Each structure stands twice: as structure tokens, then as C-alpha cells.
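It is worth pausing here to work through a concrete case rather than discussing structure prediction in the abstract. The textbook approach is simple: state the sequence, then state the predicted structure, then interpret. We follow exactly that order.
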Amino acid sequence: MFDLKALDGQSASVDQAALDALDASLRGAVHLPGSPDYDEARTTWNSVVDRRPGFVIRALGASDVQKAVNFVGNAGLVMSVRSGGHQIAGHAVADDAVMLDLSQMRSVHVDPQARTARVAPGAVLGDVDRETQAHGLTVPVGINGTTGIAGLTLGGGFGWTTRKFGMTIDNLISAEVVTANGSIVHTTATSHPDLFWAIRGGGGNFGVVTSFEFQLHPLGPEVLSGLVVHPIEAAPDLLAQYVKFADTAPDELTVWAVMRMAPPLPFLPEEWHGREVLIFAACYAGAMNDGEAAMAELRGLGNPIVDVISPHAFVDWQSAFDPLLASGARNYWKSHDFSTLTPDAISGLLEGIAKLPDPASEVFVAHVGGAMARVPTDATAYPERSAHFIMNVHSRWEDTTKDEACINWARALYDRMTPHATGSAYVNFMPADQSDALVGAYGANGSRLAEIKRKYDPDNLFRINHNILPA
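Step two, the predicted structure:
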């Protein structure tokens, strides 16, 4: 017998015979504690998360997901859902719950004539980029190739091409969803439109998505992209100029500001390794000549240590930061949205950088807006369209004795920046202890989400997430 968490807050038992019957019905398999597949499934990108589910159901298709949802629902159990396992809060895995693992479902099928892609929920961004770029096409996604497409999309999704092509959710055409009652639902703007609206930013609250269909856009195979690195001492003036530059940048140009200790990159002089720097990371989603002109002002700022902006294969640029974001480190994030960065906000940021708790920790300020900002706030569940910058305080470290110092640093900087922020939040950047920010994350869309939750998941089966309670 296996004792597991139940939806009513008590415990429930599942016997071996029931698990054997479930296992026999699946294309995938049930994995019990102690097996290599169990340990692989429960291990996520963030090593702070170390939880032990009761057992793991590894699905290979929608029918497996349907069987898993029906099994868990009928038994009254608690279930977590894993796709890429990259979410900072670690909601992919919960102690003594059933874990539904989608990580083996990684297919990406591109239709170059229709400029669409059908993507399975276990695919990571690197999978999507490689397959779409084989046809000179792209869908706007994030900036780390190991991020799961499912979690990214369900929370919103933004990256280097968002200003030109919109958010990931703005390019979602349809989705196949297994709902709490075990139905397999095909949802679009005209079929189950309320569910389609909700999954575009509302997270995994409404069902398990087993397939995404995206609109693709021509881009690549090369883009003008790269880094301009400055001493941190020049940051007060440079960041003020960056804010003005970002206000007038064309949609094709995205520039993020990163503040951290310089990693030992081969193009950086060795004397700068380990010293605080300001890095402008830039990408132009358009013609090279136009990109050169659009980046001229940025590249003319200050006296950089290095400027390594040049043509790069877009698929390589998309994975350029993967080595700095590899799986296995300890991570804790805090995030704010900003309409602008005032001088006081810039001072607050730099006060935090002066106290970096670990060489792997950083703060990045993402430059958004453009096409993303021209979508009405009520068009998707994700409501925050007016923000021009999204800050992520990314505390990252490996030594477990640094846990308290690194987490406290991120929280302190978040608190310092709160007076300058909009009050909204990006759910994909929210740690597990920031559930009080959920109201700000959804704003006026929150009540509608609660009504849709009641319709599709009245018993809150899908609760291991940034949870929206049924109305």
C-alpha cells in the first residue's frame, strides 16, 4: 500500500494492484521510489527543490495523460505536473503526491507552408528553436534553451523577439487540453474560447496541455546580436541613457541590462573576471544593415571593456546563456515590473549589485513592450502589457551554507525596488513563497480566471501551481 496526499487534506492509500493495472494501461509507465526513472523525474532544474512524490506516471501521449488524470481524480489524490521542470517555484514535484511527468513528450512538427508548429509539452525551448530555425522560422520564446515550452507558454513567455512578434501566448493558435474530468478538449479562439483565454497566462490551473500549436514568423538563420560590457562604475549614467534609448528603440531591437560579476568568458580580459560589470545584451530581429543602424547609439555609449556584437546564428544566440543557467545549482528569484527606471530605482539596483552574495548571482532587466504592449489587457489571462521593463533578481549559488544569505539578498533587493514598481508580477518568475503577489499578477483578470477555474476544475485538482481558487 502507498499512502499519499489526498485532495481533502487527509491521506489516501493506493494498493499495488491498482498501480499495476494503471501501468499496464499506459504507453508510458508508473515508476516507484528507488527506480532510476523516479529519481530522474523528481530532479528539477533548481536543486533547492528536493521533494519525493509518492510515485511518478511518465506519459507518452494524451491517452496516458487522460488515464493519469482519471486515476488521480477518482482516487481523490493530489497531483503535480512536470514538463521541463524549470520553474523556479518547483511546482513540478510535491512530497507524497502523484507526479505526472510529461518530459518524454518532446516532439516538434513544423509546417513551413502554413508557418505553424505543433509542439508537445515536454519539449524545451532548444528543441523548438532547432526545429523552427531549420525552416528559417521562429516563435517568440524565452532565453534559456532548457526551459520547458509548456510552463513558459502557460505563464506568458517573453524573450528576444517579443517586441517584434509578441509574447509566446500571443502566437498560440490552439491547444489540446486534458481537463479535470478526463475530457480531451481542443481549444482555440472559437472552440472553448474561455479555456483558450485562461491558459494564455493562467498557468496550469485549468488542465494538462498535451499539445500546443504556434504561429511562426520568418527570422534568421542569422541575427545581429551580442554583448557590450562596461565597468559597473559607469552604470549610473549608462542605465539612465539606456532607459531613454529603450523608449525610442524599434520593435525589432531588444536590449537587456545584466548586472553581475563577470564570468570567465574567453573574450573578456582576464583582469575583469570576477569583477562587477554592466552588460548590455542585444538582439535585432530584422535585416543586418537595419540592425547596425539601430544599435549604433547603444554601442556608442561610454567606454566599454568589450563589444562583441556581430552576426550570430539565431539558434546559437538563443542558447548563448545556457552555460550560465545550467541545471543543478540552487536558485531563488524575485521579480518586479516597471514602466520606467527612475534615478532612484537605478540607485536601488546598484546598491543591490554592490552586495552580490555569490559570483553566479545577478540582476537582469528585460526590455519589453513593442508588439507585446499593443495587445489589450483583457485579450489573454496575462494582463500586464504596459510594462517596459521586467526585473529578475536571480540569486544563484551552489554552496548550501549560502542558502540564507542568497535568499535574503534577493528578498531585500526586491523590497528595495517595490516602491518603483507597477505592482504586477510575471508568474513564471515568482517563487513558491510569493503567492501573495498572485492578485497583482492577474489584476482585473483574476475574477474571470476564478470563474473559468470553477467551470473546468471545480474541485481544484490542479492545485500544485500558483493556484487560482475556483470562484
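Step three, interpretation. The mean pLDDT is 96. The two ends are 35 Å apart (CA to CA).
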